[in-house]
Fold this protein.
Amino acid sequence: MQAHNLGFPRIGAQRELKFALERYWRGEIDREALEAEGRSLRAAHWKRQQAAGLDRIPVGDFSFYDQVLDHSAMFGVVPERFGWDGGEVDLDLYFRMARGRAPSGAPAAACEMTKWFDTNYHYLVPEVVRGQRFALSSRRLFDEVAEAAALGIPFKPVLIGPLTWLWLAKTRGEPFDRLELLDDLLAVYSEVLDELARLGAEWVQIDEPALVLDLPPAWKQAYESAYHRLQSAPVELMLTTYFGALEDNLGLALSLPTAGIHIDLVRAPGQLEAVLDRLPPYKQLSLGLVDGRNVWRTDLDAALGVLEVAAGRIGAERLWVGPSCSLLHVPVDLAPEQALDEELRSWLAFAVQKLDEVVLLRRALVEGREAVAEALEAARAALASRRNSPRIHRPEVAERLDGIDETMLSRRHPYPERRPLQRARLDLPLFPTTTIGSFPQTAEIRQARRDFLEGRLAEADYRARMHEEIAHVVRKQEECGLDMLVHGEPERNDMVEYFGERLEGFAITRFGWVQSYGSRCVKPPIIFGDVARPGPMTVDWIRYAQSLTERPVKGMLTGPVTMLNWSFVRDDQPRARTCAQIALALRDEVLDLEAAGIKAIQIDEAALREGLPLRRAEWKEYLDWAVRAFRLTASGVRDETQIHTHMCYSEFNDIIESIAEMDADVITIETSRSHMELLDAFVDFEYPNEIGPGVYDIHSPNVPTVDEMVALMQLAAERIPAERLWVNPDCGLKTRGWAEVEPALRNLVEAARRLRAEFALSRAGGV
Ligand code: GLN
Ligand code: ZN
């Protein structure tokens, strides 16, 4: 039996890769220095895995930006706008594709980025055109394999499979069926596999997570023909599936002529039986038993039980054991987290600890449980302490949860009755203007937060600094002429972490970084126990902001679903239950804000849509509890208190009914780049409440003109009655500078004024 890994975090325990990349992009180090940093990180990661005792170590999991983009570069799939001449895709071309610019070469629009399956990792979407050519155009993977071989690493190259890569690709120009490209694509895959064999690879891990999705019949057929074609490659293929159950693709996946198959038994433990029943006798089976998506220590007894069953059925010689998926999605190492208490730490395993678990499982199976008795006992003790800890199980939270009744899930009256009360109280004009919450987070603000955190700034001084900033933001908004103001969120490092730090049941790590995209990392909080709110989290700041102005200031909270989706979530109770606990805590915050005289409260649900399960059959259940959690958060307020929500995306077609069921009085969304087309979902469905379709694209440094914004709102007004429209940017302004934000907001207010005049006129004159 073999112990293997599917992928190791590439960013480095101290985020070395992030810092090297950013230095390179700023021109502070040269290409050779960046390459050297890459080599040294790879070597360190391989050696660490070798020292852990793994039999096969992934190579090709490293990337200077993104593994999907690496494949596009390897295949020579470079969009025309980058002016590529067909040679080797070099590092700067690669970075231009990733981020639009690089130290050399002309800037061009970067490739689109989107989430990798249901993770919070973003990949760069391959762009293919009709008649797309493929040619081996990067030797990076081969160089890395040679590097690993030279270091004596028992390497296993990792590739994204042809169907998954093609599935993730988008067509540009004339529409066509991308399966037309499969044959030519496979020719390159054959070349790659030949070269890997020549470099001494025995096994190649070929990732096909698309096999856990709902696939159209043509794609299922394409899997068959593709893998029959790759069958002749002079290497053994480990067809690797993860993030879910194979379900209707199970027979297909098992029948493909690959020497092995990997299945995810963390997300889909139930599929083992069927796989064992139908596994062809020639095939090796890799069991993903250590969670690659979460931070909990493995229940080794249970995992071992599964391995023993499998070994009993097919023999240990045909078995591999590994993490469920690449460890890219978990932080690197628990060891430096000395600020977490020992008990909590004993419940956790990051990438390095997970490797030990994988190797331990192999030893226990091969040498017997006695050989690792001590380690098993330690794991058992940690598990028992987690099961029984009073820090995790709070009877008062359970009681409150059980006490939720339907009246807590609805506002007192429906929107049409709430509307006049809110309008009267808020005194808003037609086309009211507002922003999404954050204002530019300047270097000084970040420094002040750091100084406070690290004890260099006393609490009173810190508050004074933040008050100064809030006053500045309020004054600026008044000067620009906005109707509904915000406090600007200067006190927030991150919209989830800020609340995680203030809620019980959440732990914040110091170094628990996970790559989000390129050099960007996030540090998700860990929800380990029942969630409770020791006291108000935002009220003082908002109350202060409101004390400075006559205009209404919006309270600003991150919603329960977003908090859940952007955290590591406990695995000992359903996600829905954890979400409801967060909702109850936030409900109290909403009520405290209302009691403090705040007339409008925004509950951001930036991540509601991205939490959709991979399989459509599971959508309804998710949407039901997600909407319920939002309603639980929002519904305690009086009719005249206006509830806003914000979602920074645009594809609502599939979920518009659920969005309406959230029953927010106002929803602000991202629309500026799609020319209001996405509003069509709201029209077809006759969305009943108010909408602020973003007219200022905050992802770009450009200042939108009054005309542009008026034109966008006119398009919106063709679809939604003007009485229900708001004028606002499409997301928070924290990543922008004041030099852009101020003129953009002045233009935005001017656009609203023009619209008011125009619509008042059209009404009076019946135009
Ligand atoms: N209120 C948050 C902000 O303005 C919303 C951020 C988001 O949607 N991602 O920054
Ligand atoms: Zn947003």
